[in-house]
Batch of 2 targets.
Target 1
Amino acid sequence: MQVIGFTKFERFFREAAGVSVDRNDVERYLDFVNDAIYDTLLLAQATAKANVRDVILPWDLPIAAGLQERIHRFAKLDEDIEVEPILEEVAARPPLDLAFADDTVARLPALFGAISLALAEIFKILDSDLKEVHTREWERAFRIVKVLI
């Protein structure tokens, strides 16, 4: 990740949850969020196939109410720190059997941001006094998100 990219990534977690993240955790974080998006896309693909379509539409994405709320919160937060351009670069779209509608592709950066925001909020739920995120906190937050996605 470019230095400017890491700076905005770091600022995102500071703004979202008041925590500092370490440069060494960036790759683990990006891998996790991209895996979570992939899992979401697999479920969306199953929905599209069940509806006899060859394109994944936005409403095929299994977005629960909590994640939808974080999508809205992310949009507000992103207005302030402009992190979405970075997230667009790292939100990998793995090849699936079906094509994505343009509207679906357009939602992926917001989904990436919402999952990131959920992770940030989980850090504070687990330890309201947390100031620096370390391996243990990442692993605990990842396990919680995996239960929900």
Target 2
Amino acid sequence: MRQFKSCLQRGKIKRFKASPEKIKLEFEAAQQDLKEAKDRFNHQKYKYATIAAYYSFFHIARALLYLKGYREKSHYCLKVAIEAFYVREKILEFKFVDYFEEAMGLREAADYQSIFSKDGAKRMIKRAEEFLKKAKKTADA
């Protein structure tokens, strides 16, 4: 909870009233990024498959945060907020925060160091699919 409070104090998480349309657009962006990740993977473009899979995670998490009346100014604080609002409240399993954190690391390695793998891309796509399915159920509940 200390990390979440720090994100709030630093203005990296802020109150935000998102319209249902804005939330819907985030889920659509997540779906599109997931589709793009699969396409890149099928064309053996594992670096870009990894990056697109990460952005699917990002848009899923953003949609969930919007549902709680907040928005992010930091990818790290977005992860912290998902843990605070959804994992601590036992709405989502902690594994989704782990998946998001791993996706962040893999995306950064792919983007900034050109370190990526077929296995990493495949794992992130599978996990993004799982997270999207769970998040949509959560949003509809």
